[in-house]
Amino acid sequence: MTRTRRRLPARPVAALAVAAGVLGLVVATPPGEASPRTAPAAAAAENTATVFYWTKTKNWTLHNLHYAPDGGSWTTVPGVAMEAACTDWVKKTVTLGTATGLQATFNNGSGTWDNNGGKNYALGTGSITVKDGVVAHSDPCAGTEPTPTPTPTDSAKATVYYSGEALGWSTVNVHYQPAGGAWTTVPGIGMQAACTGWWKREVDLGSATSLKAAFNNGNGTWDNNRGSDYTIGTGVSTVRNNVVTANASDPCAAAVPDTQAPTAPTRVTAAADGVSVLLTWDPATDDRGVTRYQVTRAGGSGGTVVTDVGSTVFSDTGLAERTAYSYTVKAVDAAGNVSAASAAATATTGDEPQTPSAGKPLGTDPRKDPIYFVLTARFNDGDASNNRGGSQHTKSGNAANEDPMFRGDFKGLIQKLDYVKGLGFSAVWVTPVVLNRSDYDYHGYHGYDFYKVDPRLESAGASYQDLIDAAHAKGMKIYQDVVYNHSSRWGAKGLFTPTVYGVRDSQWSWYYDEKQPGFEYDGLTVDAKSGKSYYNGDLWSTAEPTGNTCVNWGKPTGGKSAEGYTVYNCQWPSPTSGMFPKALFHQCWIGNWEGEDSRSCWLHEDLADLDTESPAVQNYLIGAYNKYIDMGVDGFRVDTAVHIPRTTWNRRFLPAIQERVTQRHGAEAAKNFFVFGEVAAFVNDKWNRGSVNHSAQFYTWKERKEYDADDTKAALEMYDYEQQQGTGSQPTSTNAFLNGNTYHAPDHSRFSGMNVIDMRMHMNFGDAYNAFSNGKDSDDSYNDATYNVVYVDSHDYGPNKSSERYTGGTDAWAENMSLMWTFRGIPTLYYGSEIEFQKGKKIDCGPSCPLATTGRAYFGDHVAGSVTASGFSQVSSASGAVATTLQQPLAQHVQRLNQIRRAIPALQMGQYSTEGIQGGMAFKRRYTSGSTDSFALVTVSGGATYTGIPNGTYTDAVTGDVRTVSNGTLSVGAPGKGNLRVYVLNGTGRIGAPGPYLK
């Protein structure tokens, strides 16, 4: 981001299997699996599905299942009656014929429906649960049936209690194997809720005295004790935070049943926008914590609809035009207690807008997709009519260069998607798209209206939706840069916009525009009277406005402006003036960048720091970003993530993202919706100056204990607790590492939902070997470093916090690229680096120098002309300047690196090891899934010797050289700086043609 240093669920697996001979190993379904549904059972002549529905929180007297087998017809409304299964559950077994799934909704037979927020439930075969909107693969009633005639037995038993309080699971299965026996069928046997935070299951062991076990949430996320499974004996055992306690006391023995319902939600508001309604409310309270909410909608022809949501925001879409709707909200706690209904909120829809229909994310593993990062406004100009220079156009020197700050746009990016694809990139990271408002806001980080796309980026036929759709049509993803931490200095429209003191006198009339009733700022439209698109007449007042909280309104400060004019109190936004409400914004400047105040004070005068622990702020932001999820973006890059407490991410924003993607696009899309945060740590330490709360890897983990229900208090409690725990007591992971030569199933049960930019490698990319060494040193502290986003430089900094674009030379760039494209993580390139664009130039100097002289210069001249990509890294035709650009050494280098990486799964998703390897930047990687087993030996620039590797035939993807290994050893000569060797076990041959470095 641009600044001046002024001072829910884990990643699920779509379908599961147990690898023969490797007990408890979870293997994901091959990438071709398209169905965003629960895992199907083994196909039979006639498939069946037993659907369990949770009844406790709905309070219906009857339950019907209305369904349609895939490719078949719906049952007649209201469907088929469900039968009692066990306490709080009903069920229905349906025959599907050859179908492998069904669409389903539920109703009470009297016109009240649960249809998954209008999307229906996509269910597979086997035993499936639907509990408060969450679908899982489980039989919650297995083993609960009474035994008609109990008989004495000498069979040993194990009573297993599992704590899921740190995981947020609503369903728990235990998958187990008695010693000497066979494993249960995946996903295992359903556990029963025993008391708050604990699940219970009694297991009959027969003659065995112990069992191996792993636990899962029925939706693809496993806790397998970091790949080792749990060993559990007879009697009572507890499993909590990877620790088994044998002969334990019953953790629920002293628990008092929770019978107290939450309070009813308050301040429910409903606002219509076209045929959608945005509903928000203040959180309810509960003695043990609210877990979900039920939104009930009445009105229209669809009857009454009940939808379960996990946040205090709900966007109801696809409604009828010009129709009145009424909404009430109830709160639900973990015990299933339901509050009274809130007061009703009403809204009437308007006409359906004439906009493109929403897209759908591609939904594939993000590690497959190298990222090309563009400042949209500086990349390529496809429509000159939306160019705007802003208030600093002349002062900055941009006018003299005929280079308005807003120059590139979505149309220009759409025109050059084939350039990006021709380089081999399949994901594009775009800077924030929301309407900005400041003196110099082309970069997008000064958000003003979070619900509106900035018109300076859009054109007729080239809206943001058009960009998303055009990228998807080419098999490319769009990652949207998003900001939760702050708004523009002018606040956030719809939440709060400050009014400053202004006066049109002999000194200041040039600065303050006359008020134009009815004129609304959008950054693009020019106010006819002032001739400005940056009109500010709506932001100031000479008279003190009603409700003003700014201190000493309009009184001279005693100071003078740069022009020598009188300066007044409340003339500019400030956190310490009282201008911003404490309920929505923080009130201080950051003093210690590694202190608690870095999460609760302003970064810069242009960035009004939002109180992200405020329910009103949370609702505003969740509602805004739901809009872009609905449009089909493939992920979010999160700006300034470190300046928001991890508890708030884990409690509010990350679960809201997962919930919305799941609801709108399905579980598979949610699993692969890629969230990666900027946790800026500009040091070379593993832990940022010893502060865990300010370190990138810290944000990849869920909380490991419960905190106060109040988000502000929880943030402080977590900060103090984790700082006291220190760096030596943080969780560790083997998810990025091979076990010898063997790939093992990663344990993502404690993954927060946020991946991160690899700041440590970024800071050390002045030298590739330093980046490699520092990256390896940190990898055990991330939940899964194979998802780290890796780049050399960006729109903010170069390596070692340099303020210039990387200038280490072409050979060093080639070496850095060769490492990034073969080592763990997702390689990312800042626009123009493929030709060393603006190397050595200051990345950002604000309006004090022309953009043309910076690392944010306009790139369109270098991609002018025509280009057509026939595939990734495949250019079928190019003419003009873009053809010359594509012939540059680094452009050709990255083009082939992308070819090689795309062809070798181990380089995309594999774990790695340096065990048994002699060499500098040398390592081995492997990825195993289903029928895919990809094993590669890599060395960058220098030679290497690999020992203890599998015997077989290895082929170098760079040269085509073939080696046969019979003694577990392979030696490779030094290929030279920037070059590399990738010997692939059972490889198919050379990939791509020799180039300036890869040869």
UniProtKB/TrEMBL annotation:
Region (Disordered): 345-367, 380-403
Alphabetized Pfam families for the sequence: Alpha-amylase, CBM_25, fn3
Domain Fibronectin type-III as annotated: residue spans: 261-352
Organism domain of life: Bacteria
Metal-binding is among the record's keywords: yes
Keywords annotated in UniProt: Carbohydrate metabolism, Glycosidase, Hydrolase, Metal-binding, Polysaccharide degradation, Signal
Signal peptide: 1-34
Cofactor(s) essential for the protein: Ca(2+)
Biased amino acid composition, Polar residues: 383-399
Keyword Nucleotide-binding found: no
Name this polypeptide is given: Carbohydrate binding domain-containing protein
Organism, scientific name: Streptomyces narbonensis
